[in-house]
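Quick start: read one record
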Amino acid sequence: MFLDIEDKVESADWEQGLLGLAFDPDFKNNGVFFVTYTIPGDTLRLSKFIGYNETLLLEIEQPYVNHNGGHIVFGPDGYLYVGLGDGGKYNDAFDHAQNLKTLKGSILRLDVSGDTYSIPSDNPFADNTKGYREEIFAYGFRNPWMFSFDRENGDLWVGDVGQDKWEEIDIVVAGGNYGWAFREGKQCLLW
């Protein structure tokens, strides 16, 4: 068996469980991989593993059991990208997706080459003086549950789950705002 963390994973509800797995670009030599999963208390966890040895990198408490995101992938730049949902319910009840002081509703970009994680110096909000979370690469997402880098040009394509009418596929750029909860697809929302 490659990994058994069943005793740690909360999977009692519909958008919980083991949500993401990414192998370090140098996995063949270092055996390092990363996992996102939910734990009791409606919390998403990002961990680094070498075999069964787990190092906790990040925990994000969610107000509800859905919109965790959790997809992770290494970009062509060698950094780990993490998708986080807005925390659930309807209409982004807590305004997470437009709040740069929370990680919810965003795509993170992390340097995970050390024992913990660090912020790449060219992240769009690195070294800001407004209290914005420096981990954020792009924001304004409802539930960016899957994404991938284009092998030809390196563009980041993100699938963002809509609420009522539209699902989105966005080409994501550094610092980009993808509009939730003011916009869903091409529709302006007035709550």
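The helical segments are 27-30.
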